[in-house]
Amino acid sequence: MSAESLDNSHSSSLYCGEEDAAAAAAAADGGSDMVSCDTTDTWIFHNQSPAFDVVDDADADDVVSRLIDRESETHHMLHPDYLHRFRDCSVFVTARQDSINWILNVHAYYKFRPVTALLSVNYFDRFLSSHFLQLANGWPLQLLSIACLSLAAKMEETQVPLLLDLQIFDPRFVFEPKTVQRMELRVMSVLNWRLNSITPFDYLHYFISKLPASSSEPGSFTRFLWSSSDLIIRTTRVVNFLGFAPSTIAAAAVLCAAGESLDSPAICHQRLNEEMVRSCHQLMEEYLIDTCPSAQVKDQSVEPQVAPPSPVGVLDAAACGSCDSRSDNPGSSNQVEAELCAKRLRSSAPDVQQP
CA angle, 109 as apex, 165 and 112 as ends, to 5°? Predict the structure, then answer.
């Protein structure tokens, strides 16, 4: 697709009719939405940088320094006034919460990797921090949520559902695949095509390996990995964590998971701001540990947890009733399958439909 055609697709209405050639191309691409690959359960290590296979600690420190440099690049950062919107507009807070809840619910249903959830929310917030969307009628944020989750899944997953199949859990609107594809292009353009964002998962292996207990206690590395991942996922629901860098969130999560003090060697890196780690650590204890019955990371005397058999295990705590605005049972597998069948039957209708 040429640059001119991309620009035209961005400037046109999301409801506009497509050229025959573009529609044919979209139909041809539809078959590539589902990729059949080996789905071996390597969920958390999929995002581990190969650079951390190095033996020399100095080399690992250098890798972390380069990752932190990338964090501060302008195209990966939120606009400074983004957090102020949440203080000034409660409607925006609620709208974002609903969108993140939907992303995490669909993420859990399809058993996506944890990093896919982080990337989805990262794209969502970066887009909104630099681009205004109407909140009144609801459909723009829903379309953005679908597009961000789809893009993240295409970046990280070996098997990606069809665009219609992502639209589950009783959405208010159902979007045609070509509409979601146009929104995906819009999102990528607004993000300057920078989709390989740094996330807290890029640092977990490094920080956990710094813990003395990770090498001295059998199974402790996996336990810390599980608990840290769980905490990181749950930070996406709390807007206060948007003010922290991924490296800060990773360091604070590891400290919480291991029950370590703030002077732990796990966060002894010259590029880390210890005061920011302290603030993030306090927020985690306040928002994610004390208030969530599924988080059992405070009491390290409990029996060690076994690594979850799939990525959805990490989200079990994140989806607990005290942290989630959805109902206790958003829908059984049969209900979801019924939704998917109904959407396919309506797939030849206009771009945006009331379900």
Answer: 90
